[in-house]
């Protein structure tokens, strides 16, 4: 974690360097499940609160509203484009190499931007392209494709060459998929964005990424408590990380909230994290994680809570050869 300039670190200044030399702010702002009519105000509030890293995706169906809010904040002089670290993700229906550039162009058009700071392959499994469908199905089964993510990656590399994206990375990739990608890549993935929190610590994956200088971004850092259904209607044992007694005990000890402990858990380990909120109050409170430090003992206790409990399972494609959650 870089201590930039003089004074205390904050949501605007705490950042880490990526393997391509770019800098990624450690505390970002999530936009999944934020309704299009709510997300603009949320992004505006986040930028006002100091967030400089905005995490989005084509599949969140709200990029136009995110882009409008970003544009407004730039035109108001609150931030410049250069201050911001904007992330989007290539959806599974666009893994064919010839679909990669049109996809980023559509995202850039939606966001009203000329480049992204980071573009990620959202998930290693590709789906068939069916116009207007994010999740094409036939008789209940997802229509997967056999496109190899290594071929998709080559097209991602070309986006860097052409200047449409500064950095490229992946999301939801496991160790063997990263190893395979590293053995074939011309540009190494800068980031792997994965689900991480004390109930899913993925220590082997974290250590692997750190050893290969692949930065991590932790998604669903609060355990995605607002989800009405586990992603894609899968039933998971509902757990409330924010009510965990150990998390609450550590929060009380530091006079912080459980959410602030869960965010600090990543930032202190140089892992970026991207909590989502549409509440102006929580958007601000979630930034107050730079004025205290967890002890080694706290970190040990939090890591000890692991139970391999995953919010985003994508079990509907679990039979695919590239389904990532079968090993580490
Ligand atoms: N790459 C991927 O496959 C992937 C998958 C999932 C998520 N993501 C990214 O990661 C982001 C975060 O993950 P997530 O949205 O699943 O879950 P999350 O950030 O763990 O949790 C969001 C939920 O927590 C609530 N919340 C926020 N701050 C809170 C606080 N201080 N106290 C109590 N509740 C609080 C929010 O409600 P309110 O909005 O009402 O405040 C919302 O319901 C996503 O938005 C998305 O950008 C990426």
How helical, in percent, are the residues?
Answer: 25-40%
- Biggest sheet statistics: 8 strands, parallel
Low-confidence stretches at least 5 residues in length (pLDDT < 50)?
229-233
CATH architecture field: Alpha-Beta Barrel
Can you say what the CATH homologous superfamily is?
Answer: NADP-dependent oxidoreductase domain
Structural class: alpha/beta
The SSE string, one letter per element, is: EEEHEHEHEEEHEHEHEHHEHH
Number of domains: 1
Cα separation of the termini: 26 Å
Shape: globular
Average pLDDT figure? 94
Query: What compounds sit in this structure?
Result: NADP nicotinamide-adenine-dinucleotide phosphate
How many beta-strand segments? 12
CATH hierarchy, class: Alpha Beta
Strand content: 5-15%
The rounded Rg comes to 19 Å
Strand ordering within the main sheet:
3-4-5-6-9-10-11-12
Number of helices: 10
CATH topology: TIM Barrel
Question: What are its keywords?
Answer:
single chain; TIM Barrel; 12 strands
What would you note in describing this structure?
The chain has 328 residues and is an alpha/beta fold. It has a single domain (15-317), classed as Alpha-Beta Barrel (TIM Barrel), CATH 3.20.20.100. The protein is 33% helix and 14% strand. The chain contains ten helices and twelve strands. α2 (63-75) packs across α3 (97-111), α3 packs across α4 (149-161) and α7 (245-254) packs across α8. NADP nicotinamide-adenine-dinucleotide phosphate binds at residues 30-33, 55, 122, 171-172, 193, 219-226, 242, 259, 274-279, 282, 285-286, 312.
């Amino acid at each position: 974690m870089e201590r930039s300039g003089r004074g205390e670190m904050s949501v605007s200044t705490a950042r880490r360097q990526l393997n391509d030399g770019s800098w990624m702010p450690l505390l970002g702002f999530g936009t999944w499940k934020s309704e299009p009519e709510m997300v603009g105000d949320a992004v505006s509030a986040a930028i006002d609160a100091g967030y400089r890293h905005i995490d989005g995706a084509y599949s969140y169906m709200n990029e136009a509203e995110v882009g409008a809010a970003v544009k407004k904040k730039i035109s108001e002089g609150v931030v410049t484009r250069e201050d911001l670290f904007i992330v989007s993700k290539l959806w599974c229906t666009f893994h064919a190499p010839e679909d990669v550039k049109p996809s980023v162009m559509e995202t850039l058009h939606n966001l009203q931007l000329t480049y992204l700071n980071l573009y990620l392959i959202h998930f290693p499994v590709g789906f068939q392209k069916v116009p207007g469908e994010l999740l094409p199905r036939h008789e209940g089964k997802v229509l997967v494709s056999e496109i190899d993510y290594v071929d998709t990656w080559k097209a991602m590399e070309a986006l860097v060459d052409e200047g449409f994206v500064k950095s490229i990375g992946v999301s939801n990739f496991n160790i063997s998929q990263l190893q395979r990608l590293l053995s074939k890549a011309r540009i190494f993935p800068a980031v792997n964005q994965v689900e991480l929190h004390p109930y899913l610590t993925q220590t082997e994956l974290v250590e692997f990424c750190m050893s290969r200088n692949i930065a991590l971004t932790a998604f669903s850092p609060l355990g995605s408590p607002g989800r009405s259904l586990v992603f894609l209607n899968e039933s998971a044992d509902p757990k409330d990380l924010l009510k965990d007694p150990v998390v609450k005990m550590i929060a009380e000890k530091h006079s912080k909230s459980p959410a602030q402990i869960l965010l600090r858990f990543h930032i202190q380990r140089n892992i970026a994290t991207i909590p989502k909120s549409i509440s102006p109050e929580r958007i601000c409170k979630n930034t107050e994680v730079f004025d205290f430090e967890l002890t080694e003992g706290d970190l040990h206790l939090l890591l000890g809570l692991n139970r391999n409990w995953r919010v985003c399972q994508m079990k509907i494609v679990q039979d695919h050869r590239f389904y990532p959650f079968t090993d580490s």
